[in-house]
Amino acid sequence: MARKDTINALRRRKIADDVADKITTKFASIGEVESATKEDLLAAGLAKDEVVDVLEKLNAQKSKRTPVRKTIRKAAEPEATARKFDISIPDKQRKPSNFEKHLDDTCKKLNIKLSKKVIHDLADRIDGIGVPQSKIEKILKRAGERYGDHMMDPNESAGILAAQSIGEPGTQMTMRTFHYAGVAEINVTLGLPRLIEIVDARRIPSTPMMNIYIEPKFRNDVDEVRRIASEIETTKVLDIATIEPDSNNMRVVVRPDARKMEKKGLTLELIHERLSKIRGLKGKIEIVDETIVLSSDEPSFKKLQNIIDVVKDSKIQGIEGIHRAIIRKEKANDEYVIYTEGSNLQKVLEKDRVDKKRTSTNSIQEIYEVLGVEAARNSIIDEASKTLDEQGLTVDIRHIMLVADLMTNDGDVKAIGRHGISGRKSSVLARAAFEITAAHLLHAALTGEVDHLDGVAENIIVGQPVTLGTGAVNLVYAPNRRGQ
C-alpha cells in the first residue's frame, strides 16, 4: 500500500514508472525521496542521467509551493489549525515549563497515564492560580479517568465506527444551496452535496468562495475595505463601459461610465494601458474625447467583430477566478469582511492589508497547494464539521479527524473512493467488493496478487470471522490431565 502510494506520488511528478520502481526499493515514502541526496539515489540503482532528471523534477515540484509558503506560512499557521476545535499538538522543540515538569512527575508518582498535550493544557489552565498539591493530584486523577474512558479499546473497529458516525447523519441531510450573506448572486453548497465534495477531494468545489479578513488597522475603514474588494474582484471592460462598433470608420469605440470607474478606482489611462497589452488586439488604440478608440488594421467586418469579442472579455483589474466580491459587517467582531464568489488563495494572500492569519477558502485543494498538507487536513475537519453543524447534526470530532488523517496521511489529499483510498487498498477482494469487481479480479489474476485476508470486507466475503474485537483473539483451553 505505502509503496503504491509512493509510486503514484512519483508519477504525479512526471517520473517514469521504471525509475519509480527502482526508487521504491530503497525509499518507503515520498518524503524520504525528496530528502535523498544524489549519492542515495545512485545507491538505489539509478543511472547518473536518471538521478539528475529525478532531482530536477522533485526540485521543480518544491519550487511551485515554496514562494508563497515562505512569505505567509508563519503568519497563516496559527489559523491553519481547525478554528472551531483545538486539535493542535504542542511543538516538539518547545521546552516544557517547570510546572509542566511538576505535573509530569506527579503523574509518574501516582501512576497516571496522560499525554503531553493534556499535561500542557492542564498546566496552561492551573499554573499561577495557587492550586494546592492535594487538589492538583485530584485534578490529575480525574483527568486520568476521563482520558482512559476516551481511549480506544484494543482491536476496536475505529474505521467502521467513524463510517457509521458520519454516514448515518448524512442520510438526514437536506440537499439544498444557501443564498450567502443575503445576496442572491452568491450562494454556497451545503448539506449532503457539500459533504460529498469534501470526501471526494474535488479539485474545484461547485461553489468556490473565500472569506477575506482585513488587517486590524483597516478592518473598520469601509472605504479602504471597499478599495481592497475592488482590487480583488475581476473587472472587465463590459462592467465599466459600453462598447460601440463604428462600421463606417472600421473602428470600435469604448465609452467608460465615469461613476462606475470612480467606484472601481480606475482611470481612462489605466484602461488604455491594459488594452494596449492584449496580444489579440492589432491596430491603433488611442484616447479620443474621454473615449478609447480601437482601429482595425484591416478594413474587415470580421476583424471588427473580433475586436469587440476580445475587448468585452478583457480584464482591467482583479484576481483571476474571483468573479464577485461583497462587503459585510460582522457584528460579532465589529469589522468589515469581504466575501467572494470564486477562489484564488495564493493571489489573495499576496495582497497588502489582507489578514493572512484568518483569510480562508472552502477549496481544500487550494489550501493544500498553498499552505501544505497539514493545513489541508485541518480544512477537511473544519469544513466537514461546519457542514454537519449547519444541519444540526452532531458527529464526534475524532471520527471526522480519522477521515481527514486517512485522506492526508501520505502527504497528498486523496479522495475516499475508487480513485483514492478504496482503490488503493492492498486487498484484492476489498477492492473488488467496492467497485468494478471483474476488472479487479482479472487484473489480480494476471499479475499474481496475493490477498492475506487481513481486513473486514475480505473476511466476510470468504465467510470467516473478522479480525476485530473477540475475532482478533484465539482462546486455547488446556484441560487438566488426570492425576495432576
What do these coordinates show?
The chain is α+β, with helices and mostly antiparallel strands and 484 residues long. The chain folds into 5 domains: 2-80; 105-150; 160-208 and 362-424, Orthogonal Bundle (PTS-regulatory domain, PRD), CATH 1.10.1790; 235-317; 427-468, DNA polymerase, domain 1. Helices cover 49% and strands 12% of the residues. It has helices at 2-12, 17-24, 30-34, 38-43, 48-80, 98-110, 116-126, 133-150, 158-170, 191-199, 222-232, 237-240, 258-264, 268-276, 301-312, 345-349, 364-371, 373-390, 397-408, 428-434, 437-447, 456-462, and strands at residues 175-179, 187-190, 209-213, 235-236, 241-246, 251-256, 285-288, 291-295, 315-317, 324-330, 335-341, 360-361. The strands form 4 sheets. It has a 4-stranded antiparallel β-sheet with strand order 10-11-3-12. Strands 5-6-8-7 form a 4-stranded antiparallel β-sheet. Strand 10 and strand 11 (335-341) form a beta hairpin. The protein is extended.
- Hey, roughly how much beta strand do the residues contain? 5-15%
Helix count equals: 22
**Head-to-tail CA distance between termini:** 51 Å
Question: The CATH topology of the largest domain, please?
Answer: PTS-regulatory domain, PRD
Number of strands: 12
- Based on CA atoms alone, the radius of gyration comes out at 30 Å
CATH architecture of the largest domain: Orthogonal Bundle
The level of helicity is 40-55%
CATH class of the largest domain: Mainly Alpha
- Low-confidence stretches are 66-93
Sheet/helix structural class: alpha+beta
Mean pLDDT rating: 79
Label the overall shape: extended
Strand line-up in the sheet with most strands: 10-11-3-12
